[in-house]
Design brief:
Helix content is 62%, strand content 10%. The chain is α+β, with helices and mostly antiparallel strands and 268 residues long. It has a six-stranded antiparallel β-sheet with strand order 6-5-4-3-2-7, covered by helices on one side.
Length: 268
């Protein structure tokens, strides 16, 4: 029975990292779909529309279709300006949210395993290296050598505003390291039994309190991140509204439908 108790506790401890991670997910009513091929680099927004035509908008809000500049009325020019400005604002907001979410997860997981195995343990260092590597990969993927944001939707695997590639990469690497850590966790628990008072209940209570503290801190940070996600959604809603106006009023943009934002929960 004691061995079963020991193994159950070890498994629960290893899964505590997943519990901490679950609370990093940002809860928002925003549902955004991205349709078509979209590029953004050095202020130039390029959209391949449903009909195959290519629209570009530059920093000066000049609109072209298949390389030809489109003459616009003052009202149309305002819609183009609004559309570009909100997309230009939404992209760095999205990257900031992704980076902050990764940082929260990094701290949570590292603290969990630091408590179990000791902060100087090799596995804790591996976790830190993993987070550093993912962060570096994200920067390489979305920024050039000079720090300019570079977006290309052809590199995404689904039709979300930003795809789930980084989340999947994170989960796969966490699961791999957790699997590797099981032996060390068993040793850590066994050591507690040998060199502590041998009181597994006290050890379990200590780990539970520690897990609750981690969870509370992560939830607080995730709540702040949720506020940023809601602000991002409001920006994307405004971009979607401008896109609809452009599509309806500007000749040649009938195939423009890059954004599809569920607005039912959002304030306009």
């Amino acid at each position: 029975m004691k061995k079963a108790h020991l193994l159950t506790l070890a498994v629960a401890a290893s899964l505590s990292s997943s519990v901490a991670m679950a609370h990093v997910d940002v809860d928002t009513d925003c549902d955004v779909e991205l349709d078509g091929h979209v590029k953004y680099y050095k202020g130039l927004l390029t959209v391949e529309m449903d009909n195959g035509d290519v629209m570009t908008i530059d920093k000066n809000h000049t609109l072209t279709i298949n390389g030809e500049t489109v003459s616009l009325s003052s009202e149309q020019q305002q819609w183009v300006k609004d559309y570009y400005s909100h997309i230009d604002q939404a992209i760095p907001m999205t990257l900031e949210i992704a980076t902050e979410g990764l940082h929260i997860a990094s701290v949570a997981v590292s603290e969990v395993f630091g408590e179990l195995l000791g902060n100087n343990n090799e596995l804790v260092s591996e976790f830190d290296s993993m987070f550093t590597d993912i962060n570096r990969e994200m920067r390489t993927h979305f920024y050039d050598a000079d720090g300019n944001i570079r977006i290309d939707s052809d590199q995404y695997s689904d039709n979300g505003w930003f795809d789930s590639y980084w989340e999947e990469q994170f989960e796969e690497r966490i699961e791999s390291l957790v699997a590797q850590s099981m032996g060390q966790i068993l040793v850590a628990v066994g050591t507690e039994m040998m060199w502590g008072d041998g009181d597994m209940d006290e050890f379990a209570d200590r780990m539970e309190r520690f897990g609750e503290n981690i969870e509370a801190r992560v939830e607080k940070q995730a709540d702040a991140l949720e506020g940023k996600a809601d602000a991002l959604c409001e920006v994307l809603v405004k971009a979607d509204v401008a896109e609809e106006k452009m599509q309806a009023s500007i000749n040649g943009l009938d195939g423009l439908n890059m954004l599809d934002v569920d607005k039912k929960h959002m304030k306009m």
